[in-house]
Amino acid sequence: MAGGGVEDVYGEDRATEEQLITPWSFSVASGHSLLRDPRHNKGLAFSEAERDAHYLRGLLPPAIVSQDHQEKKIMHNLRQYTVPLQRYIAMMDLQERNERLFYKLLIDNVEELLPVVYTPVVGEACQKYGSIYRRPQGLYISLKDKGKVLEVLKNWPERSIQVIVVTDGERILGLGDLGCQGMGIPVGKLSLYTALGGVRPSACLPITIDVGTNNQTLLDDEYYIGLKQRRATGEEYHELLQEFMTAVKQNYGEKVLVQFEDFANHNAFDLLAKYSKSHLVFNDDIQGTASVVLAGLLAALKVIGGGLADQTYLFLGAGEAGTGIAELIALEMSKHTELPIDDCRKKIWLVDSKGLLVESRKESLQHFKKPFAHEHEPLTTLLEAVQSIKPTVLIGTSGVGKTFTQEVVEAMASFNEKPVIFSLSNPTSHSECTAEEAYTWTKGTAVFASGSPFDPVEYEGKTYVPGQSNNAYVFPGFGLGVVISGAIRVHDDMLLAASEALAEQVSQENFDKGLIFPPFTNIRKISAEIAARVAAKAYDLGLASRLPRPDDLVKYAESCMYTPLYRSYR
After folding, report:
1. How does pLDDT run across 461-473, given as a tens digit for each residue?
2. Number of C-alpha atoms within 13 angstroms, CB side, residue 28?
3. CA atoms within 13 A on the CB side of 569
4. I need a labelling partner for 384 at 20 to 30 A (CA). Which of 67, 80, 289, 535 fits?
5. Per the residue annotation, which of 103, 118, 129, 252 is the catalytic one?
């Protein structure tokens, strides 16, 4: 018995939610259709007895191989590809063919394959999605479906959905408006929910809301797969979103987690503010990024000494990620020092495309930037801001590459013994500086993390291993915690709990290598710890609906996690 008292008899793996399964209606397909069913297909791993029982004899070559042997062969094949996009296509083909093998591969080789199924390669995949598109993954809801969104949701074959990742494709990574081709992002995110967080694949639903695109290249592209019109805005846009959110609740109930992904700034903040009181919603770009970066800062404090409130923070970039991180830092600071949140915000400075956010600019600023506009003379460049404010922590969320110049980084090193430098923009080409630049320009003193992965750096005989501040550390475990507790709302304290849990997973051995994030190889254990802390906070806040509360939440989280080992069929 596992995952809410469901006996695991009918082929679902350790269900993370009560399943309504009528025994007489459940059967595994046979023969040719079984080999075409990605959820149950095992390829050459079917035993002699299974081949007889399910009419497979003759449909497969006579060899029988183990799942481990299949994994070894596919990893060998993947490593032959020189173009990363070819690896991505091969992985997606495997997911369409043999789901359990896909997840086993991803779990066992997470550090090697994470950059393939997610950033940075997924960015290129989205740019070329029209050309590499083979079989539809996920659900497409467009302006044409207005008034029929509930019917569209009912066309999805799974009834028991726990996590939805939805995008409108307007701001994909740092690549801009990719319209309907943004589907690669929800698909990639949900494969990580399963591989890293253990949420069942059948409980995950990727959705793209297509309201058009303002990307002229796509509008002129004969192979573009989305609506060929300019983006709908204002009332037309919000009516479709409202219908979508209502239909989700109607079809899947109160406890389905809706993760907003890669919406443009103006919509991202509005949607989160609008639906966080009535739905279980989470924005990974605002809240997930903030939670991971806060965890990195909490770990970095163990290297540089002092508390959060003893630092001065300067951000380059004042969009979703920048203001989201800044706000979460202020919340955590306020929680530990009991200072009013406004006082905590005064330690945090932001630079946008027009310069430092200051009081005199307040009238013209977007609402989410206003809390961080402080009394100061106007400054237009990042270098001026660094020299004037003398931050101990420099964080880049600008989406613009090479903006942490040698002068900026050297200035940071001139007044900090161990400057903390996070260049978080994705993909790699948009990173504010590289790991090599950060370590070289600070003469090896930087505490560095980046959004996309960088190789270890040799500097004066010492090897520095840069940490990757990757949202994949938090959102899978966060989602699992929400699901296992039956939470009905997301509260900021749950994000703080996730950050603290992640920071505690960094060992002294990691610190010695210069890492402020734990290695991804332990990610399932880390996710279980985060899930337990998030669930505990949901219970403490009275937001959890799964009662009674389990005694050992870490064990309970682990028992609920999907495992991709093959099943035996009778």
Report:
1. 999 999 999 999 9
2. 21
3. 26
4. 289
5. 118
